[in-house]
From TrEMBL:
The lineage of its organism: Bacteria, Bacillati, Actinomycetota, Actinomycetes, Streptosporangiales. It comes from the Bacteria. GO terms for molecular function: ATP binding. Pfam families: ABC_tran. This is ABC transporter ATP-binding protein. Keywords: ATP-binding, Nucleotide-binding, Transport. Residues 5-230 form the ABC transporter domain.
Length: 302
């Protein structure tokens, strides 16, 4: 299967700071990928490298089926919506569309006009006079008019209110189902992920901490609840992501897909994506990456 984004040994250093390091990742095409992590984790850096706006200090990155990031072939296939949507506030919406047409080899003008009409965004209005939600929709329209194979968005939801956020994500999902475009977007809105993403990447401290299909990640983790005095023995049997204990009871979030994982006297609970992602973000030394799983009893370490 071709990869939407593939990196090997990718690193980016700004002065003494490694914004991203040792990043080897293969995100298969055809997914809606949520890229999450705390402030300063390296999300924008990873996306900038994938788009070709930054050059790697180490390693390489290929996009949309093996095209070197930033190459002419990649620029044709990839559309990017930046954190601050790169729109000229003094130009009208129609001017932005004209600019898009002249800058891109592939350009679906009809679709762009139709989309803006559906959204009731007047073509003659200056971009600076639009609401934040409307500006985001214009940026998405420009990106989709390229008919990209891969659409990359850096925190598209950050400035949007809940209704605009919902409308934006619905528009994105429609584009995914109509065009089959692969989408990678970074977000702090972890609660949204479960509804829209089928693949998730967690980055923390410049390193990839989690990468995988949502369904597999959720099926492969459970919370085991039982007596605290047995918790050490149970923790020896499974890779533990999070260990919470009171005097009487322990709650261990473990990486185990075995349906019989719960030892006698212990209960097993399923876990949702939001809780799973937050648990990893709170435990930076834990990781869930493709490849051999950690041995039972091994603390999952990067
Ligand atoms: N141009 C730059 N010059 C110097 N340091 C930078 C630069 N860009 C990013 N960094 C540093 O690299 C690290 C990763 O930054 P990055 O913007 O990729 O994180 P992020 O996960 O996107 O953060 P946020 O969620 O806050 O947007 C941070 O420590 C940041 O300060």
């Amino acid at each position: 299967m071709s990869a939407a984004i593939e990196t090997s040994g990718l690193g980016k250093r700004y002065g003494r700071t490694w914004a991203l390091r040792d990043c080897s990742l293969a995100i298969p095409a055809g997914h809606v990928v949520g890229l999450v992590g705390p402030n300063g984790a390296g999300k924008t850096t990873l996306l900038s490298l994938a788009v070709g706006l930054a050059t790697p200090t180490t390693g390489q990155v290929r996009v949309a089926g093996g095209r070197p990031a930033g190459s002419a072939a990649a620029l044709d296939a990839v559309a990017f919506v930046a954190q601050e949507a790169a729109l000229y506030r003094n130009l009208s919406v129609a001017d932005m569309l004209r600019m898009g047409r002249s800058l891109n080899r592939r350009w679906d003008a009809e679709r762009a006009r139709g989309r803006l009409a559906e959204l009731d965004i007047p073509p003659g209005r200056k971009v600076g006079a639009l609401s934040g939600g409307q500006r985001s929709q214009v940026a998405l329209t420009l990106a989709l008019a390229k008919r990209p194979e891969l659409l990359i968005l850096d925190e598209p939801l950050a400035a949007l209110d809940p209704v605009a956020r919902h409308d934006f994500m619905s528009a994105l999902m429609t584009a995914v189902s109509e065009d089959g475009v692969s989408v990678v977007f970074s977000s702090h809105v972890v609660a949204e992920l479960e509804r829209v993403c089928d693949y998730v990447v967690v980055v923390h401290g410049g390193r990839i901490q989690v990468s995988g299909e949502v369904e597999e990640l959720v099926a492969g983790h459970h919370v085991l609840t039982g007596p605290s005095d047995q918790a050490d023995a149970v923790a020896q049997r499974f890779p533990v992501v999070r260990d919470r204990r009171t005097f009487a009871q322990a709650h261990l979030l473990v990486r185990a897909s075995d349906p019989d994982a719960a030892p006698p006297g212990w209960q097993r609970h399923a876990i949702g994506l939001e809780e799973l992602v937050l648990a990893y973000i709170r435990e930076p030394s834990a990781s869930a990456l493709p490849g051999p799983k950690p041995a039972p009893g091994e603390q999952v370490a990067c």
